Amino acid sequence: MSNRRRPTRDNNYRTRYLHSPVWFGRRDRWFIEEARRAITIRCALCLGAGSARNLELHHLDYRGVTQTPHGWIAHERHEDLTALHPRCHEYVHQLIERDRALSGFVSRRTASLQAITRLRAKIGRYIEALDQQ
């Protein structure tokens, strides 16, 4: 098992699914559902407010994504997706790829949640240091 991103050219998920109408429909449904659940939709990392226009969705689990001979099926559970600002999303992926434990020895969900927690703690320490100046 690996949580590392595969090169784009060899990855149907990144080159096809994330550009498909099926994904955009699932993404839209996620934001509608989340708006009903929460007063404000926030980035899971920096906790900044956002919307479908400026947040991306990160998969905590791919089990709901299926490729068939007739196309893609998007049955990700709401809890299998989390919103991140594009830069925060990239930071999460970079940490997962750089950390041996996160990239290969734990589940995708665990790797993602641990990366977000570690990065959030780092942001908190940075803000504290700025406040002390």
| Amino-to-carboxy terminus distance | 44 Å
From the helix content, strand content and strand pairing, which structural class follows? Answer: alpha+beta
Strand content: 5-15%
> How do the SSEs run, as a string of H and E?
HHEEEEHHH
Count of alpha and pi helical runs = 5
Shape descriptor reads globular
Global Rg: 16 Å
Helix content: 40-55%
How many extended strands? Answer: 4
Structural features:
alpha+beta; two-stranded antiparallel ribbon; two-stranded antiparallel sheet; 5 helices
Q: Can you describe this structure?
A:
- The protein is of the alpha+beta class.
- 48% of the residues lie in helices and 12% in strands.
- It has helices spanning 12-15, 21-37, 86-98, 100-104, 108-132, and strands at residues 56-59, 65-68, 71-74, 81-84.
- The strands form 2 sheets. A two-stranded antiparallel ribbon has the order 1-4.
- The longest helix is centred in the C-terminal third of the chain and has 25 residues, at 108-132.
- The model has no long low-confidence stretch (mean pLDDT 89).
Topology:
Layout: H1 12-15, H2 21-37, E1 56-59, E2 65-68, E3 71-74, E4 81-84, H3 86-98, H4 100-104, H5 108-132
Antiparallel strand pairs: 1-4, 2-3
Summarize this structure briefly.
This protein is an alpha+beta fold and 133 residues long. It is built from 5 helices and 4 strands; from the N terminus they run ααββββααα.
